[in-house]
Specification:
With about 260 residues, the protein is an alpha/beta fold. The chain has helices at about 15-20, 45-55, 65-70, 100-115, 120-125, 155-165, 190-195, 215-220, 230-235, 250-264, and strands spanning about 1-5, 30-35, 35-45, 60, 85, 90-95, 100, 135-140, 145-150, 170-175, 180-185, 205-210, 225, 245. The longest helix is centred in the middle third of the chain and has 14 residues, at about 100-115.
């Protein structure tokens, strides 16, 4: 039995822009809507391969998305229905679509024991936060913050000093495109995967992800895959601990899934 834990955005599913930047052979279909707007796509070949895998093995989506954002991805509510899913960057474990209350209490206890309260974190952030570079604020599932920022206006020196300061207060940050994430240090995809593994029976753990927020999860797996278009490749191209998928975009997903199916 293979356990496959995988990030979603830019690893398994893609925005319209990503699909345009990295065209894939074959058909693509929308798999997520926000109102009448299409948010994400997958290739038909990827869906079929992932469906085959999920029927015989253990597939666990692992995402930084809020619970409601994960639930609007139709392919995981209809065509492919994983028994387990991890959302909120490890803050929430879903079992058959329902929140695992045990893990919820445990992660809240860990955060409370290691990080200053979120209100205090915001007061520290207020020292460098300015309207000219911070556009929007989101408090995700009452666990962490995500800010939309203007990349060309970020005060990088101040942000680096802020990162060092909050590191001593139990928080960390990731700048991923136009999104600035500020999370409790204990809120880590790898921690949630580690907790879930205690209840699963499998022979091999395979993980996949494109961003530094996925890196710890890749390291704890027997094989950790990352695509050539991702942040991990950009920052750690020579990292021998990562198995690189040389293709980009949805083609990398197809290559990834072919590799995993061949492991069986």
């Amino acid at each position: 039995m293979i356990l496959f834990t995988s990030d979603l955005d830019r690893t398994l599913i893609y925005s319209k822009r990503m699909m345009e930047n990295y065209p894939v052979d074959g058909d693509i279909i929308p798999i997520e809507y926000k109102g009448d707007d299409i948010i994400s796509y997958m290739s038909l070949d990827s869906i079929e391969m992932l469906r085959q895998f999920n029927e015989k093995q253990l597939f666990v989506p692992v995402t930084t998305r809020a619970v409601y954002q994960y639930e609007r991805i139709e392919v995981f509510q209809n065509d492919i229905q994983p028994k387990y899913a991890i959302t909120s960057n490890g803050g929430t474990i879903l079992v058959d679509g329902k929140v695992d209350e045990e893990w919820g209490k445990l992660i809240q206890q860990r955060i409370a024991a290691t990080a200053i309260p979120n209100e205090d974190l915001l007061r520290v952030f207020a020292d460098i936060r300015h309207e000219e570079w911070v556009a929007k604020e989101f408090y995700v599932d009452a666990l962490f913050y995500m800010f939309h920022v203007h990349l060309d206006r970020i005060p990088h020196a101040e942000l680096r000093a802020f990162e060092s300061r909050i590191g001593e207060l139990g928080w960390r940050l990731f700048l991923h495109g136009r999104k600035l994430y500020i999370l409790p240090t204990e809120l880590n995809k790898a921690h949630a995967v580690d907790h879930l593994q205690k209840y699963l029976t499998y022979d091999m753990h395979v993980a996949a992800g494109d961003s530094l927020m996925d890196y710890d999860m890749l390291l704890q797996a027997d094989i950790g895959y990352s695509p050539a278009h991702g942040e991990i490749f950009e920052r750690r191209e020579n990292d021998s601990k990562v198995a690189w998928i040389n293709a980009a975009g949805a083609t990398s997903t197809e290559d990834l899934l072919r590799n995993i199916l061949q492991l069986d």
